[in-house]
Amino acid sequence: MWVVKIGGSLLGSPELERWLDIFVKFSDGKIIIVPGGGVFADAVRKAQKISNMSDETAHKLALLAMDQFGHLLHSLNPKLATASTELEIDERTWQHRAIIWLPSHMVLGDDLIPKNWDVTSDSIAAWLAEKLDATHLILLKSDKPDKSKLCLKAITKNGLVDFEFQNFVRNKLFSTWLVNKSDFEHFEDGTCGIKLAKIASAVH
Predict the structure, then answer these.
(1) What is the number of other CB atoms lying within 10 angstroms of the CB of residue 56?
(2) Rounded distance, CA 202 to CA 189, Å?
(3) 157, 134, 146, 129: which is closest to 180 by C-alpha?
(4) Residues linked to residue 138 through DSSP beta bridges, in sequence order
């Protein structure tokens, strides 16, 4: 099982729909897409500044923002399935479909997840990867640092991942990878660990 987080920054890029096509073609029920918050989460941040809403409320709205981006991704490629619960994930897996996970239902049911901006879609994707015993967690982003800077401390400091991400991936059984949006060409013959290792650098 692969959990693939698609950054909201890919919205509007020509690469996005190509990635979705690849996931549909090669998933066979083994790829679960976690949508970022993108412009919808940005709207929550703006609303919080205007209204002074609590971080807990902003957290809930940001999860709904991820749901919104997930529905948008589904509209771009209706061959993708959506799922909100573990049961729905299992059903779509049995149907051998690529899945877009709508996270609000499951994440809001876990009181152990911090309810603030220290946890964003990257950490939530890692949370899902552990919950589903995934083999790989892949963060698909518009930018990726040089290999020399691919360590948890560096990518946290430069804001490439959220503050809590290191706590969600450290000492976990799944492997964590950062992939640039332009790397899709390496997946066009199939998604397998060997090809992934050639184009992405592990987060230590």
Answers:
(1) 11
(2) 21
(3) 146
(4) 4, 177
Band of pLDDT at residue 200, cut at 50, 70 and 90: very low
Burial 95-127 (b: 16+ CB within 10 A, else e): eebbbbbbbbebbeeeeebebbbebbbbbbbbb
pLDDT in tens, 43-58: 999 999 999 899 999 9
How far apart CA 58 and CA 44 sit, in angstroms, is 6
The residue behind tokens 């332009």 is: 182
Element spanning 73, H or E: helix 55-76
Predicted TM-score (pTM) of this structure: 0.89
Q: Structure tokens of 137?
A: 């967690």
- Residue 135: phi, psi to the nearest 5? -85, -40
- The structural domains of the chain, ordered by start, are 2-202 (3.40.1160.10)
For 41, counting Cβ atoms within 10 Å of its Cβ (0-12 exposed, 13-18 middle, 19+ buried), the class is: buried
